[in-house]
Amino acid sequence: MIDLEHDHGVAVVRMHENPCGALVPEALDRITAALAYLGGSHAVVLTGGEDVFARGFAGGATDRLERAVLAIAHHPAPVVAALGGDALGAGYALAAAADLRVMSGGRLGLGTPAPVSDPVEAVLRRHAGPAWPALRRGTRTYTPEGALVAGLVETCCAPRDLLRVAVERAALLAGGAKQFC
Questions:
Q1: Among 92, 112, 113, residue whose Cα is nearest residue 101
Q2: Which of 44, 48, 115, 168 makes the best surface tag, with the fewest CB within 10 Å?
């Protein structure tokens, strides 16, 4: 469901989606546990598979989604979301909670209106700013370029560069600029 590895002093948490790309409740629990395990010792890059970050709200897991989103939002070290594919629904919520987002492909947004807890909605609203009304209604998702223009991501890059760029940004945010080969 998730892998934890290190790259240039940055912890990389990689989500493995199920066949439809939706996050299962156990994956949300494992993201929360991984962030607790890491504490503030490492900046974190949260990423998914090659063509999907994560899409869809895991059925009946609103409380688990809230815990994962708040774990990202309140993590003591920087968290960078590396979006190589669709970040929809719960995936968008996780990405919105990160300190910075790097996107190389897919679409970003809620996709369809879905009930979320008040704390998760506060994170989404704060992240989306003026784009929030359209995102909340589920009437708008964004390509990488559109997300950059709307201020929903901070950087776009080629798919082959996604993890490298995300790790570099995480290290810089943590104050540990390193040489990257």
A1: 92
A2: 115
Do residues 54 and 48 touch, judged by C-beta distance below 8 A? yes
Numbers of helices and strands, H then E, in the chain: 7, 9
Q: Cα separation of 57 and 8, whole Å?
A: 32
Cβ atoms of 100 and 154 closer than 8 Å: yes
Read off the DSSP letter of residue 10.
Answer: E
* Packed helices 25-38 and 62-73: angle between N→C axes, nearest 10 degrees: 30
Inter-residue contact 112 to 55 (CB < 8 Å): no
Q: Compute φ and ψ for 170, nearest 5 degrees.
A: -65, -45
Q: What is the distance in angstroms between the CA of the first residue and the CA of the last residue of the chain?
A: 29
pLDDT in tens, 13-51: 999 866 666 778 888 999 999 999 999 989 999 999 878
- Alpha-carbon Rg for the chain, nearest whole angstrom, is 15
CA distance 163 to 27: 20
Residue 166 clears pLDDT 50, i.e. is over it: yes
Q: Is 29 exposed, middle or buried (0-12, 13-18, 19+ CB in 10 A)?
A: middle
The whole-number pLDDT of residue 179 equals 45
Tell me the pLDDT tens digit for each residue of 116-145: 889 999 999 999 999 999 888 888 899 999
Paired sense of beta strands 2-7 and 10-15, if any: antiparallel
